[in-house]
Specification:
It is a single chain. The protein is mainly beta. It has four domains: 14-124, Immunoglobulins (Immunoglobulin-like, Sandwich), CATH 2.60.40.10; 126-197, Immunoglobulins (Immunoglobulin-like), CATH 2.60.40.10; 204-305, Immunoglobulin-like (Sandwich), CATH 2.60.40.10; 307-391, Immunoglobulins (Immunoglobulin-like). It contains no helices and 34 strands. It has strands at residues 14-15, 18-22, 26-30, 35-42, 49-55, 77-81, 86-91, 100-108, 113-115, 120-125, 128-133, 137-143, 154-158, 161-166, 170-174, 180-185, 196-197, 202-205, 209-213, 218-225, 232-238, 261-262, 269-274, 283-291, 295-297, 301-306, 309-313, 316-318, 323-328, 339-343, 346-347, 357-360, 369-375, 386-391. A hairpin with a 2-residue loop joins strand 13 and strand 14.
């Protein structure tokens, strides 16, 4: 299953020269992945299309609302049109509540309106591991609530390590009490199923250390396992744990109240989202869960929050001298970082670099000004400006 789901033309709807052609009528995609819905349309000669959009909700006597105006899709939609009256809708970071019938609508300058119906039915599913068989000779099945598009290849993990890759969703295994198993599909190995185990306890983090920019948003993700005969009573994140005391749920700690969000929606997923990061959010974050008979906590995930600082050497020079600009962070940002450079608040042409160092050679009086830097993708979080003075 690829992160983008593409489809072939199947449906034509015609009415006096008006039509919407959808590339497929149904798509099954993984939660957290990206999907692409595609259509093309025709209309009467002499008309000119004035607006196009996708929608899911349409009440009697009420005009449908552009999906791009709905808050729950904010930042997750892309519309793409082409010269042949094609139209693509891309939805990222899919959620189960995105499951719906998506329809395309266009309007013309002569009050013409058309909706392609039926639309595209999108079903969003997660992965689950179903266990059947005897005491220890088990058959594991990677199941979904709908049939995934493109017949994916399944990948199996034992105690977090890859052990098998197969087109079959079944895996026969000798299941010991200490082992845990999870599955994923090829191309989206980052979207694991929750792990299953017989008597094991574990918290598995996606990353053990994170470097993030001040002002950005970070997700700290993990999955956890516990014996099947236990029942979860409470699950939460914390940073401080004093000897002899139970750690305090981070969501009720002053300074974090209203600042963090728990995203895990199953009893084996745990994701902590921290938006608008502050330097003071740098800490070791741990996940803890309490069952009907035991309690367990994972090791810390180290989060370092950094700002971007521009260093200029020197800040005052004579013409024809060189100046070195360095964009510094407290930790190494992941993935590979591209740096953007600015003069007087405007991007310097052709200045993006993989290096945090940018050099001005043989400067002139025209190079006098205020300089700053930013990390590509976070241009809204630039460094403070440093002023360069060039004298004759």
């Amino acid at each position: 299953c690829n992160s983008l789901v593409f489809c072939d033309c199947l449906v034509f709807l015609w009415l006096n020269g008006w039509s919407v052609t959808y590339t497929t009528q149904s798509i099954c995609a993984l939660k957290g992945s990206t999907v692409k819905l595609t259509c093309s349309y025709t209309y009467r000669i002499g008309h000119k299309v004035t607006s196009t959009f996708w929608f899911t909700k349409w009440g009697t006597g009420v005009e449908p609302e552009d999906l791009g105006q709905e808050p729950e899709y904010a930042g997750r939609l892309e519309y793409h049109g082409d010269k042949k009256n094609g139209h693509n809708l891309i939805i990222t970071d899919l959620r189960e509540r995105d499951s719906a019938e998506y329809k395309f609508r266009f309007k013309t300058d002569q009050n013409g309106k058309y909706i392609g119906s039926p639309g595209v039915t999108l079903s969003v599913t997660d992965l689950q591991v179903k266990v059947t068989g005897g005491h220890q000779d088990k058959t594991l099945t990677c199941i979904t609530t709908c049939t995934l598009t493109d017949n994916p290849t399944y990948i199996w993990y034992k105690n977090g390590h890859k052990v098998k890759e197969d087109t079959s969703s079944l895996y026969s295994v000798y299941f010991s009490d200490a082992d845990s198993y999870s599955c994923a599909v090829k191309g989206r190995e980052d979207l694991h199923s929750p792990a299953v185990c017989q008597k094991c306890w574990s918290v598995i983090y996606t990353r053990q250390s994170i470097c993030a920019l001040k002002g950005s948003t970070v997700n700290i993700s993990c999955s956890y396992t516990y014996p099947s005969y236990h029942e979860i009573k409470k699950a939460f994140w914390f940073t401080k744990w004093e000897s002899g005391k139970d750690p305090e749920d981070l969501s009720s700690v002053p300074g974090y109240e209203g600042h963090i969000e728990y995203l895990g929606d199953k009893k084996s997923d745990c994701t902590l989202r921290i938006p608008d990061l502050r330097l003071s959010d740098s800490a070791g974050y741990r996940f803890r869960f309490i069952t009907s008979g035991e309690r367990f906590a994972g090791s810390p995930v180290s989060l370092t929050v950094t700002d971007v600082v521009l260093e200029m050497d020197p800040t005052s020079v004579s013409e024809r001298e060189n100046v070195t600009l360095t964009c510094r962070t407290k930790c190494t940002l992941d993935p590979i970082t591209v740096y953007s450079w600015y003069k007087n608040g405007q991007p310097i042409p052709n200045s993006n670099t993989y290096s945090p160092v940018y050099r001005l050679f043989s400067v002139s009086s025209e190079d006098t000004g205020r300089y700053s830097c930013a990390v590509e993708g976070h241009e809204d979080l630039p460094s403070a400006e440093e002023t360069l003075t060039v004298t004759c």
